[in-house]
Amino acid sequence: MTRPASDSWSLPWMGLGLSSNLSASDVPHPYRLLDASPGLFDFVEYSAPIALEEAKAQATLFPEMWRRRSEVPVLFHPVHLNLWGPELEPASALAQLDAHARAVGSPWVGNDVGWWHAGGQPFPGYLYVTPPFNEAGVRDSAAHALHIQAGLSVPLVIENPAVLATRGGLHALDFMAKLHARTGLPLLLDLGHLFSHQLSAGLPLRTGLDGFPLEQVMEIHIAGGVVTRRGGRTFYVDDHTQPVREELFELLAEVLPRCPRLRAVTFEGDGHPPEVALASLRRLRALVPKESRPAIAFPASREPVPALTGESRPWALFDAGHGVTPATEDADPEGTRADRDFRLAVVAEQLDRDWPLTRLLLAATPEGLESFTRSREYRGLFDGLGRSLSHAFASWARKRVMAAPSDGVAAALSLEMMLPHAFLQEPPAPGPGQVALAEDVRLGAFPADLTELVFASRALRRHLTGRAWACGALEVSGLEALAQVAARPGPGPWRFAIRRKGTGFEVLTLPPEVASGLQGLADGPRPVEDLPAWLLAEGQARGLLRRA
């Protein structure tokens, strides 16, 4: 879909699509779902890194997508492509983006108008910062969008962003209409994102649609989310793993006939089990019948790229969302607190993959998490000075331990720092008649026994979460017990198992006799007869062993 001499793009009819991160471990698996129910949907819209080679390396379903793209067309929805923020995307990134889109035959690329990454580092959970809905936000977003479009040979379709804090005075749809008028770029209408703005602003769901240029909408997104209340306000949290709200199905049925140039409807069903995704797709299939429609011509944007002014103050909004500045100083204090709560929850979730003990000991409360997100280590991550969120937290935690020495916290930090090193080497697989540790399991040893601390962290999480369901608040004061347990480690040496869990690690405490018996497998496979029958049974029951 290169830009033709007639100054217009030819955009094909795509129909109904399902989004995917192209990971074989995620649900739903788009191709298995389609093979089981032919005709259920027409295309796959996938999110992946901008660079084609990086996407091939990271996306385990990329080979299948590539092989079947003539049978199941694709739309490329790139991750962390800045359509707002303090800096424009480098020319090298745009060249990679264009090459990727052309290679897979994506007729356009679309992305939310937001600030996704800084210093080469995506914000945790890909939670972008939404621009202010004012003239300054329109100008700076237009500069980003036209800069990106100038590097593309396919259209850039601009998507209305998710909203928690309402800033700037313009309605979300008015903001997008002005951005379209400024850039000439086609629109992607995300119904959940629209719902998020309407709830935050206290408006009926359909407010603003009558004056919105629906004839410029090329694609519609529908996805799951959670409606939640804080004080007197109601917010919509954009979480694709949740069920689709009934209001959004009804809105889609009303909007579809009003979008004469619509080319695609995408169900963002990330995290839905196949049987659940099947029900939603069947309902959507009734609204978007499988049919062939002729391609349409859409004028190619020839608008000049304006200068990026920075008047929309992206770093100020970043600081508001991470607790650097008080919420009371923002234009929407209550919305800013809701936005900050969501960001802190995502930061905590990501840290718990690598630092479940240290995070609870140093940053279990909102105040503790804000202490981290306000820190130089966290900010440095987005100034190009850090390697990852995990490394930034490790540096911050070390500084905290040095400032207020605590043997218990220091021990937890040391333990969790050593866990990744256990997986640096891949052990050999067992041969015939041999037994070995499971592929995702290693053995570890530590000079102090932290068995009780590992147990306490899990028991307290379960207890406090259960109480939160009953009382409506997380009683973090209950975590005082964790500090007591951390201060009384047992004598070492302590032997335990380590299991890789997603991108993180899990410590598995073991009875001493089991830990000692398995130690012989640390160096590699052993004959089955070398292990006592009770130990073999115990190790297999715990998922620690594999046989040839």
From TrEMBL:
One Pfam entry name: MbnB_TglH_ChrH
Top-level taxon of the source organism: Bacteria
Record-linked Gene3D superfamilies: Divalent-metal-dependent TIM barrel enzymes
The protein's name: DUF692 family protein
